[in-house]
Design goal:
This protein is α/β, with parallel strands linked by helices and 369 residues long. The protein is built from eleven helices and 13 strands. It has three domains: 97 residues, Beta Barrel (OB fold (Dihydrolipoamide Acetyltransferase, E2P)), CATH 2.40.50; 159 residues, Rossmann fold (3-Layer(aba) Sandwich), CATH 3.40.50; 87 residues, Ribonucleotide Reductase Protein R1, domain 1. A hairpin with a 2-residue loop joins strand 2 and strand 3. The chain is globular, with a radius of gyration of 24 Å.
Length: 369
C-alpha cells in the first residue's frame, strides 16, 4: 500500500512532509528489530497505553522497551497529536518505535514541584483558548494561555463561551481583545448558536486545533455541538454558573468537515515552560512601545524616558497588564535557573555513574579492594 495515497492517513493530516519525516525515521531504525514499520497518529493517551489511528483503523499501542529506555525526558514521549512509527506486537497491539519531529507543540511546566515539561498537544495549527462568560474571564490567566499558545507555533483564537449568560457580550469581547492583541476573539453560545459559524472558520479540513481552558468552561458541550452529537460527557451547570469537569483525558477527534480537534481536560494550573517568543507576541503592544524608550535595556520599572510607563500614565496600557508582563518575565527567569540547576545535577549524576563503572572495570580487570 502506498501510504501517500491512503485516504485514512490524509484525513488525519498526513502530507508529503510527514512522509519524508517517516522515511528518515525508518532509516535510523533499520538496524534495529523493527519489521514492517508504518505511520500512525496518537489519538488518545491512557497512562501506559496509547490509542493510535493508522491506515487500517484505530488500535491500542505501547512504547517499545528501547524507546522507553532511551527517552531521557517526559517531553520526548508521545503525546496526543504526534505522528509516530509503529510496528505490530505479538498480541496485535501496536509497538511505538519513534516520534516524528513535531511541527508545533503546546508545552507547559508539569503540575507540581518537578521541573519538567508536559506536552499537552502536538502538531496543532490552531489553539482555541476557551473562557466562560460572565464570571470566568480572567485577563491575566488569558495572557498566560496566549504566551504558551504563541510559543507553541500555533495560531491562538480566544473563545468566550456561554455568551448567552452575559449581559454585555460586546464589553467582554473588547476587554479580551486588549489582553490578546492581534488575536481573533469569538463569543460563542451553543444555546443560541452565536459565534459557532465564526468558530468553524478556524476549523479547516486537514488542520488540527486544540481546545484549551479551565474546568467547567463548556469545552465538552462545544465539542458535542461541533460533532453534531453527544460524543463527550457533560455535566449540568451549577448554581454559580460554572459547569462541572467531565473530560478526563486528551483525545483527537475528526469533525464532520474534515478538520481535527484535540479535546483536553480542564487545567487547574498553567505554569510557563519556555515562552520568550510567546511572551513577546502576547505583549506585542508593550514590545512595540519599548522600541521608543530612551535606553535600549529599559526594564520599564522607573527609568527616565520610558515610553511604556508614559503609555501607562496616559491610560493606553493598563498598569495591571504591565505588572503581569513583569511577573511572567520573572517566572521565566526563575524557571530557566531551575532548568540549569537540574541539568547540572543530571550531569553530575552521569559523571558519578561513569566513574563507578570505571572503578568496577578496573577492579574486575586488575583486582584489588
Amino acid at each position: 500500500m502506498n501510504i501517500d495515497d491512503c485516504p485514512r492517513l490524509a484525513a488525519l493530516g498526513w502530507d508529503a512532509g510527514w512522509s519524508a519525516a517517516f522515511e528518515a525515521a525508518c532509516s535510523s531504525l533499520r538496524h534495529r528489530d523493527t519489521d514492517q514499520p508504518s505511520p500512525a497518529r496518537i489519538i488518545a493517551e491512557h497512562r501506559e497505553r496509547y490509542e493510535v489511528a493508522d491506515a487500517d483503523g484505530d488500535r491500542s499501542a505501547v512504547l517499545s522497551g528501547r524507546f522507553r529506555h532511551e527517552a531521557t525526558t517526559r517531553e520526548e514521549l508521545p503525546s496526543v497529536g504526534d505522528w509516530v512509527v509503529i510496528s505490530s506486537g505479538g498480541d496485535g497491539a501496536g509497538v511505538l518505535r519513534a516520534v516524528l519531529p513535531r511541527r508545533s507543540a503546546f508545552v507547559r511546566k508539569a503540575a507540581g514541584d518537578a521541573t519538567a515539561a508536559q506536552v499537552v498537544a502536538a502538531n496543532v495549527d490552531v489553539a482555541l483558548i476557551a473562557t466562560a462568560l460572565p464570571a470566568d474571564l480572567n485577563l491575566r490567566r488569558l495572557e498566560r494561555y496566549l504566551a504558551l499558545a504563541w510559543e507553541s507555533g500555533a495560531t491562538p483564537v480566544v473563545l468566550l463561551t456561554k455568551s448567552d449568560l452575559a449581559d454585555d457580550v460586546g464589553a467582554a469581547v473588547a476587554s479580551a481583545a486588549v489582553a490578546a492583541p492581534g488575536v481573533d476573539v469569538v463569543a460563542v453560545s451553543v444555546v443560541t448558536g452565536q459565534g459557532v459559524d465564526q468558530l468553524r472558520h478556524h476549523l479547516q479540513p486537514g488542520r488540527t486545533a486544540v481546545l484549551l481552558g479551565s474546568s467547567g468552561v463548556g469545552k465538552s458541550t462545544l465539542v458535542n455541538a461541533l460533532l453534531g452529537g453527544e460524543r463527550q460527557r457533560t455535566a449540568a451547570v451549577g448554581d454559580d454558573g460554572r459547569g462541572r469537569h467531565t473530560t478526563t483525558h486528551r483525545e483527537l477527534l475528526v469533525l464532520g468537515n474534515g478538520s481535527l480537534l484535540i479535546d483536553t481536560p480542564g487545567m487547574r494550573e498553567l505554569q510557563l515552560w519556555t515562552a520568550d517568543d510567546g511572551l513577546g507576541s502576547t505583549f506585542a503592544d508593550v514590545e512595540a512601545l519599548a522600541t521608543h524608550c530612551r535606553f535600549r535595556d529599559c526594564q520599564h520599572a522607573g527609568e527616565p524616558g520610558c515610553a511604556v510607563l508614559d503609555a501607562v500614565a496616559r491610560g493606553e496600557v493598563l498598569a495591571e497588564r504591565l505588572d503581569h508582563w513583569h511577573r511572567l518575565r520573572r517566572e521565566l527567569a526563575y524557571l530557566e535557573r531551575k532548568q540549569d540547576d537540574r541539568a547540572a545535577a543530571e550531569a553530575r549524576a552521569q559523571l558519578r555513574s561513569l566513574m563507578r563503572g570505571v572503578r568496577t572495570h578496573i577492579r574486575n580487570k586488575y583486582g584489588g579492594a
